[in-house]
Structure formats: structure tokens, C-alpha cells
Design brief:
The protein is an alpha/beta fold. 44% of the residues lie in helices and 14% in strands.
């Protein structure tokens, strides 16, 4: 399915990103692994310098052509939450998009979160969509008053990422150029980033209370990677502009048929 193709994956050192990179390699792909301090390209996507380094490094290693990009890097501390989860992801996808032009089946994917459906700060979301990073970070600083607010910052950045993808997926730069762009929004996933929730009986009990559907139990990173691998494969010939909630039904329960 992926034999002979080349992919760039950010956040590839652990968790979902590592699982996606491993799955693509198992299927015969070459993977350019990108992370904060490890892999083929080291870059801090919370900064403008890091984003430029990512594009330069991947461009050099790709030798002129990519078949797919997975913008997975995310999470992080509150002070860089918006910079990384929205601006870093968008810079990855836009910066590497020109390398997809010569692929016979170019694909792009962002990893979001079901947290985008939670409480968000409208000022952050709108500043992100206006591509005003200074205003977005200022709004995030105003909103961050407690540890719980960190989830709001994360959800705000991920909602903005979802909305950005929906806006651009069918434009001249993407679908009209033959590049399919989608988003996967997982629920809770068994990764190091989720260990603080899942490592204690109390944490698991709280997670069960918040996600009572049987299918909404924590997923493995490999399960998310399987969906990601299909999204960026030539087998996906028609799906684009979609937010694929891999959350065991949480989005469906939360929104029902209202989106229709």
C-alpha cells in the first residue's frame, strides 16, 4: 500500500507519531521522522525558527518529492500550546505542500483531538483562523488561569485546526491540486502524554466517568495509526476535508444529528 512512497511525520519519537511512522515503514514506505530533538529532522514547531528548520530539513532529505505529510506533533506545556498545536501544524502542512506536487497520489493529514468539542475560547480560535499568532498567544495567556484551563487551550487550538482544514481542503492549493487533506480527532489514547490520566485507578475511573461508552475506552496508538495509514495511502482516493473522530462514539453522542 505504501511501498516506494516517502512520508514526513512530525512528533514521530513517541506515542501516535511513533506508531504512524512504524506502520508506514512496515508497509514499505520511507519515513522522514521529525521531532523536537530526535529523528531525521529536529525542530521545535512552537517557534518560527523551528518551522523553517522542519521545512528545510524535510526538503533536503526528501530530495524533491513527498507523497504524504502527517502533522502529528502536539500537546506540550500551556505556554506553547496554541503555537504548537495550531500554528506548528498548519506551518508543517503548508510548508511541505509544495513537495507533494509531483506525487502521483499526494496525501496530507493532521492529528487533532475530540477535545475540540469541549469548552473553547472563541478569541483564541478566531485569532488562529485569522493567522494572528501574537493575538492568539495573548488570548491564551489571558485564558490560562488554572491547570484545567490547559485543556481549554488545547481544545481551542485543535478546534481551530479542524476549522482551518475544512476551509482549505477544497481550495486550489489542496483538492484542486489533487492533494487530499484530512484530520483525525482521537479520543483518549494510551500514550506517554496520557499517562498522567491513565496510570492510576482514580484517573481511569474519572476517564470512565467522562467517556462511558464501551467503545470509547482508551485506544492504542497502533489503532489510530491504522486509520492514519489509510488516510495517507493511494487507497484513499476520494475522502478529503473530513474530521474523522476516532473516539468510540463520543462526538456522535455529543452532537448527534445537529451537524446535519
Amino acid at each position: 500500500m505504501h511501498k516506494g512512497r516517502t512520508y514526513a511525520v512530525t512528533g514521530a519519537a513517541s506515542g501516535i507519531g511513533a506508531a504512524i511512522a512504524a506502520r508506514l515503514r512496515e508497509d514499505g514506505a520511507r519515513v522522514i521522522a521529525c521531532d523536537l530533538a530526535e529523528g531525521d529532522v529536529a525542530a521545535d514547531l512552537a517557534t518560527a525558527e523551528g518551522r523553517a528548520a522542519l521545512v528545510e530539513g524535510v526538503t533536503r532529505l526528501a530530495e524533491g518529492r513527498l507523497d504524504g505529510v502527517v502533522a502529528n506533533a502536539g500537546g506540550g506545556p500551556a505556554e506553547t500550546m496554541v503555537a504548537l498545536n495550531f500554528f506548528g501544524a498548519v506551518a508543517t502542512l503548508e510548508g511541505l505542500r509544495p513537495l507533494l506536487a509531483d506525487s502521483p497520489a499526494p496525501r496530507a493529514l493532521a492529528i487533532s483531538s475530540v477535545s475540540a468539542l469541549g469548552v473553547v475560547e472563541a478569541d483564541i480560535v478566531e485569532a488562529c483562523l485569522a493567522r494572528d499568532e501574537t493575538a492568539a498567544i495573548a488570548a491564551a495567556d489571558r485564558a490560562f488561569v488554572s491547570a484545567e484551563a490547559g485543556l481549554t487551550l488545547y481544545g481551542s487550538a485543535k478546534q481551530a485546526l479542524n476549522r482551518w482544514a475544512r476551509r482549505v481542503a477544497v481550495t486550489a492549493d489542496w483538492a484542486e491540486a489533487g492533494i487530499l487533506l484530512n484530520v483525525i480527532a482521537p479520543g483518549v489514547v494510551e500514550t506517554p502524554a496520557a499517562a498522567w490520566i491513565l496510570s492510576t485507578p482514580e484517573g481511569r475511573a474519572e476517564m470512565s466517568r467522562r467517556t462511558p461508552l464501551p467503545a470509547a475506552r482508551p485506544a492504542s496508538a497502533e489503532q489510530i495509526a491504522a486509520l492514519a495509514a489509510w488516510c495517507v495511502s493511494p487507497e484513499n482516493a476520494v475522502v478529503t476535508g473530513q474530521i474523522l473522530f476516532a473516539d468510540g462514539g463520543l462526538e456522535c453522542r455529543a452532537r448527534g444529528a445537529v451537524v446535519w
